[in-house]
Design brief:
single chain; mainly alpha; 71% helix
Length: 84
């Protein structure tokens, strides 16, 4: 999930990256399953999302992700990326 958020950010979609980071909190609220080696990458993506959207925009995107049910989060992770 961190990888997908990183890809979305690199593709110029910080909104989706933020939603994915918020969804990560639903799927793994205690960082139980996220390998500790991903923490710096997650933090870097979060910094990029915040830089692009501002504090409130990043919090809003992450809040939308946190409000999704697990199935919707998985759909977002596995969707085909926009190529437009």
């Amino acid at each position: 999930m961190v990888e997908r958020a990183d890809l979305e950010l690199a593709a110029g979609d910080p909104e989706v990256a933020g939603v994915l980071l918020g969804g990560l909190r639903v799927l793994d609220p205690e960082d139980t399953y996220l390998d500790w080696t991903y923490f710096p990458r997650r933090d870097r993506v979060l910094a990029g999302v915040t830089a692009a959207l501002g504090e409130q925009g990043a919090a809003s995107a992450m809040g939308r992700g946190a409000a999704l049910d697990p199935e919707a989060i998985l759909d977002l992770i596995t969707r085909e990326p926009d190529t437009e």
